[in-house]
Amino acid sequence: MIEYTTKQDGSAVLACFSTDEYLIEVPITGLTDETEIQNKLSYALEQAQNMDWGE
Amino acid sequence: MPIFVGSSDIDDIVIGTTKQESVFVGSDRVWVRPALYNLTVGTSGTLPNGSVSYGFSTAGTAYGSIAFVANHNAYQSDWFKNSGGVGQGDDIYYLLWNGGGSATSKVQLVIGATDTAASQTPNTDVTFSKMTIDGTVFNRTDATYTYSFGSNFSQWEWTTSTNPFGTTTGAVKRIRFDKP
């Protein structure tokens, strides 16, 4: 379970969370299913961990 | 905010010989001269997960290239570089479409640099509101944004099965960034 906050960005709604390594903001406009939101957040974190960040 | 002439979202307004940098309606700024890049398409070849990337990257084995169109006189000459409080992301580190194999197809934009000090490039309209690749529009607020505290790189990712760069290496694609 990823804890997140939401913020409004114009007409879009973003779910925001951070880890020690990343700040991640995921568009969730119109989503109300918490499972679906969690899946999107988990995928975003997995993608971040698999990225080449030039380090 | 775009200004259309017919169906064309214009990127240039000239009065006499003066390139206009912005347009106001009353006190509201409704247009700024966008930043333009020419991207020469390269490819990663097949990656370990079976996917292929097309576009431009300086990560790992570099491919493709990108050039800022300086003579367009964008509203900010250093659009992504510590300009207007945006941050110190050096410039575009890579911009590509990746798909096929076991990968989720996506367009990725990464701003940052490995050779200069950098800071976060924020996920706001100050950075950009939309990116257009060869006519295909990607709204910033539709992207997943990731900032790496370790590298100071900022990434926007759009899930899409359509490769806006095409598969012809050496082709030049126009990239446009707008902000309100």
Find the structural class of chain B using helix and strand composition.
mainly beta
Range of strand content of chain B: 35-45%
Q: Over the alpha carbons, how many angstroms does the gyration radius of chain B reach?
A: 17 Å
The secondary-structure element order of chain B is EEEEEEEEEEEEEEEEE
Unreliably modeled segments of chain B: none
Task: Provide a count of the helices of chain B.
Answer: 0
- Mean pLDDT of chain A, as a whole number? 93
Provide the spatial order of strands within the biggest beta sheet of chain B: 8-9-11-12-16-15
Shape of chain A: globular
What is the chain-wise order of helices and strands of chain A?
A: EEEH
Note the gap between the termini of chain B: 5 Å
Attribute tags:
heterodimer; A: 55 residues; alpha+beta; three-stranded antiparallel beta sheet; 3 strands; 31% helix; globular; B: 180 residues; mainly beta; six-stranded antiparallel beta sheet; five-stranded antiparallel beta sheet; 0% helix
Model description:
The complex is a heterodimer of chains A (55) and B (180). Chain A has 55 residues and is of the alpha+beta class. Chain A has one helix and three strands; from the N terminus they run βββα. In chain A, strands 1-2-3 form a three-stranded antiparallel sheet, with helices on one face. In chain A, strand 1 and strand 2 (12-18) form a beta hairpin. Chain A is globular and about 35 Å long. Chain B is mainly beta and 180 residues long. Chain B has strands spanning 4-5, 8-9, 14-15, 18-19, 22-25, 28-32, 35-40, 42-46, 52-57, 65-68, 92-99, 106-111, 130-133, 136-139, 144-148, 154-159, 172-178. A six-stranded antiparallel sheet of chain B has the order 8-9-11-12-16-15, with no helix packed on it. In chain B, strands 10-7-17-13-14 form a five-stranded antiparallel sheet, with no helix packed on it. Chain B is globular. Chain B starts with a strand and ends with a strand. Classes of the chains: A alpha+beta (55), B mainly beta (180). Strand 3 (22-27) of chain A pairs antiparallel with strand 15 of chain B, so a sheet runs across the interface.
